[in-house]
Structures are given as structure tokens and as C-alpha cells.
Amino acid sequence: MINSKFPYIFYGGDYNPEQWQKEIIDEDIRLFKLSNINIVTLPVFSWALLQPSEDNYDFDWLDDIFDKLKKNDINICLATSTAVQPAWMSKKYPEMLPVDFEGRRRHFGGRVKFCPNSEKYREFSVRLATKLAKRYKEYENLALWHIGNEYDNYCYCENCRKKFIEWLKNKYSSLENLNNAWNNRFWGHTLYSWDEVTVPSALSEMWNGQNKICTNFQGIAIDYNRFMSDSILECYLGEYEAIKKITPNIKITTNFMGTFKPLDYFKWADYLDIISWDNYPCYGDEPSKVSMRHDLMRSLKNGKPFMLMEQSPNQQNWQPYNTIKRPGELRMQSFQTLAHGADSIMYFQMRQSVGACEKYHAAIISHSGSENTRIFKECSQIGEELKMLNDCTIDSIFDSKVAMIFDWENWWAVEFSSGPSVDLTYIPQIEKYYKSFYKNNIPVDFVKPEGDLSRYDIVVAPVLYMIKENVADNIKNFVENGGTFITTFFSGYVDENDKVKLGGYPADFKDLLGLWIEEIDALPMEKNNSIEIAPFIPGFKSSYKCDMLYDIINLEGAETLGVYGSDFYKGRPVFTCNNFGKGKAYYIGTNAENNFIDDLIKKIASNYSLNSYFNPIDGVEITKRIKGNKNIYFILNHNTFETSLTLKNSYINLFTKEKVENSIIVSEKDILILEEI
Ligand SMILES: [Zn+2]
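Above are the sequence and the zinc ion SMILES. Below is the predicted complex in C-alpha cell form.
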């Protein structure tokens, strides 16, 4: 539970009372009550007001807000306000300002623009967090802590370079090891003194390519990402440790951003008491894309419930086209979040500001100030429904038998790679395999490559290019014990420093997959080939399209299930299966069309009876959360037409409290939450 004093779903969001006069704040609180808001996050960006100068702090204005909220039974997610250091602080201590990728020292401006290795930043941010904790530790409505905001601040300054060298010394012990790890004999890069290490930026090894950041030395670039992710985590941890000493029983979080590349969230997750994240789907994003990110965030802490810290009640301001949400869209997104394991629904923002870049970003209370807007009414309705759910879904969990391997370091390596194809990116490969499970209502967890796989039947690892120590053994152990493993092209090539493992690709997986790869052909996306399925294999069509990459495979024990349909490698295997111990390992040596992946997943899932609790219906998303011995089903009809659902058992509709059995109609764009009885 987020906080056992408040056993209900948290509903609210970011509030910036520092931007408003007293009368408006009073009106806001009235509107919060009217829309069933029970928590606000504040003050996210108020360091400059809380600390007007080096020796002066001012909490009086915040005390007033706290008192008003307490009188109205509204809880507080207390933000430490450390995402933007004051202008005076940046001026007095310019080393606090980061140096960007092009090597330019920034001036004060924007947000989350501080060097993560600045001692002054760390000292002042911990001091502010400590003062906030001491001042508000006894406050009855303090529900949780929110440190910083959307950390993303890589820096390339001289101070970071020195700290990077310390980090490298700690990791590699000797320059010989470092030179070896980075393969520094290439292009005459051998280092003879630690001080010769440069940060990988546009001034040294890297440049902004057409679609991505490119590098000459992947080993250096990956290590710098690791170092930056660790450095930023240390900023968070400084505040975390200070607060924890003062309020040991209040949970602490910071808001993640889903598939956000710069930070290794699996590593960070160990240091958060509860995962929270900000969900901002783009125009036209399919529901499965959003569900995948919820599942990834839920998986960071082994499936424990997470928080939705931010979503927009309506349009955003930072997308190319800031589309307003259609009627019912916000409600659907909110319950989709709950359906994937969240115990809160929170917004950015509560009231729309009058100036600066977010003034056209939606809020529950718009510029009109009216309680009669479409969005205010929809928010109020969602709040009403969450109140009806009370604690029915709180702390409920998932039971997934499918895991997808997800790894930030692998993501960096795949996309830093020079070749084989500019079209190869990591997340779309994850999304396409995930979607096939999603369409069959099969719950999916995400695990890190070295994570525990023992509770799963199926493990899927698209483009698992980097194989770190113990990972191959972890996966082989899973298959030997009866698991089914699926992997693809560009898997199993390199170690943790992006150095190729010799002996034919995929070195560590050759015995597991019963094959080795001699060459990879990369062609423009408009060219394609086909996978011709071997005769008498049930559940597949005879032929599927494929594109992008084409492995030329030599078999060493695997069975051919499909071959190429054209080019000089026509008839060579592209889709294989190998028996390994008690399990099976499937290999797909090309970028197969979605129908192929759908049919493969359906076939394998049916071996384990994974898709049996409701028959899949196009556009209807169904998940199950488990609370004690109760199964709670979330049924989300994304279609623009109603659908009828056949029920196998009896259920209580948690919105109407009515008993339902046999069948039920789900209206267009509507949601049902059914508890099995
Ligand atoms: Zn720096």
C-alpha cells in the first residue's frame, strides 16, 4: 500500500499554488473536493521561493497551503523541489550548471539543468530536502515523498570527466583492463595515463547522426551512460537517505518516464520505495503501446503495484499537434493504468498556468475556472468511480507466466552499434512481440536478463544483442528445466563492453539454439523477403513477409520450421526450433511481419493454456489482478461499438455492485471491473 493510513486509490496530481493568489487557491480547494481529489503533489518547482538566498529559507507560504489542505482532508505528495536550482545559486556557483553534448556550458534556464556531479548541487538539494522533512514530518496528511522531477540531466563538464575517471578506476582497476575492455588498440586509442580519458561527446567520439547519436567507440559510450545513470541516481539517493532518517515510514519515489532511454530504471528501482511514472501517449498510439509501458514499470519492482504520477487530463503543449482527448478517452486511459497494476491516478496538472511554456497544457481546472467543462466533469466522474472501488483493487498483483527480457544497457548497445541497419531500433522490436500476447489477453512481465526466470513458462528476448556475465547460463537453465525461449536476429553477439564474442554468432547461444550465423544481410525496408513455413506445421500460414535483416544460418541440431522464399539464400533456414534439456528454443532470423509473430505466440501459448480465461476479442483489452483469493478482471472496450462477452463464472460488477453471469454487454469505449465470486 502506498500509505496504510490512506487505504484508497490516490486521485489527484501536480498543483502549483505558488503561482496563485489566496482567493484562487481557496476556489481550487473547493473544486478539488467537488472532483473527488484526495491528494496533490507539491511544490515541484519552488526551490527559488523556498530558499531566496544562501542563508534564508521561507516555508511560511507552504505552511498555509498545508493547513488549508489538511482542513479539507486532502493528502500531500511532498515534492522536494530540487529539479530547478534558483537562478542566484546558478550564478554564485556556476559549476552547478551542466556542459552539454556539444561542449557548451549552459546558463541558468529550463529545468533539470544541473551537473549531477556538482558537490554544491548535492549539498544544497540535500539541505532543502532535510529542512522540508524536519518541518513537515508530523503533518498528518503527508502521504509520500516525491524527489526531484523527471531526472534526465547528462553532463559533459570537466568535473564529470574527473568523476568518470574515478568510476572507471573503480570498475577496471588498471588501465590495461580499461584499454582491453574498450578495445583501444583500434584507431590508436591506447591510454597510458588515467588523465587521458575524455568524456564521449560531440567534441570527442560522438556525433548527432541522422536518426540517432553515433559513436566511434561503443564501449566508452555505454560506460558513460552507465556512469551518468549512476551519477544522477546518487543525486536522488542523497535526498532519499536524508529524508528516510527523518520520516522512515513514509514511502519515497521519483517520477519515471516509461521507456526513457538515458536512465537504467531497473537499477534505479532498487532505491525507490514505490515506482511511479508519467504516462503521455502520443497522438495515434495504440493501446498496446501504453499497456506495455505500464507493464514495464510494474515489473521494475517485481510486479508490486505502481503509481501513475502524471497524465494529462486533456491536451499537452509539447507535441507537434496537441490533440484534445475525445470523450471517454481520459477515463479509458485512467482505468487502463489501474488494469495494469497501478494504485493511483494522478495528473499534471490541477490548474492551468497563465504564463510560460505549459500555459496551454491541460489541467483539471482550465483557464475558464469553470466546473462545467467537459474535462472537469470527466475527471469528477473518474474520481467518483475510484471512490466506489474503495480498496477493492489496492495491492492486488499479477500472475504472469510470460516474461520479456528488457535491458537498458542492451538498448544502448543496439542503438550505438555502427551497423547492421539504420532501421534497427530496440523498442519497436519489444512492442511487436508484446502486442501478440496483449491481443490474446496474456499477461506479460518484463525481467532484466539476469533476473529470476523460474516462475515463467515462456521467455521472449527480441534483439538481446548484449550478453552479460551469467545471462546465457540463466536462460539456458530456464530452457533446460522445460521453458520455451524465443529470440531473434542480432542476439547474443557481444559482451557488456560491446566486444564481439568469437566463434560465430550468437556465441553463447549456439548450443541453446542449435545453429550459428555466418552472415547478416541488411536491405532497405522497401525490399523484402518471405518466410516459407515447412509443410505440415499446424497453426501457421504457408508464407509470411519479412524485411530489414536476414541471417544466413547454419544448423547444428535445430529443426527448420521456415526458410527464405527468395534471394541467393532462398531455401536456407530462417525460423528454427531446438530441443534443449526439457525445453525448446525458437529462433527468428529476420524481422517478421506481425501476423507471423501472432501465429507463433498463439501456438506456443496454447501449449501452456495461457489464453483461456476470456476468448480474445479485437479491440477489447482484458487483464486480471489478484487480491488474496479474489480474481478481479478489467475489461476495456477500445472499440467504437458495443461488444458482448461470454462469462464462464459469476462476478460482481464493482461499479454497480450487481451480480453478473452468462454474458454481459460492454458499451463502446466503456470499462467493466468484475470481481469473480
Ligand atoms: Zn558535470
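The CA atoms of residues 196 and 662 lie 73 Å apart.
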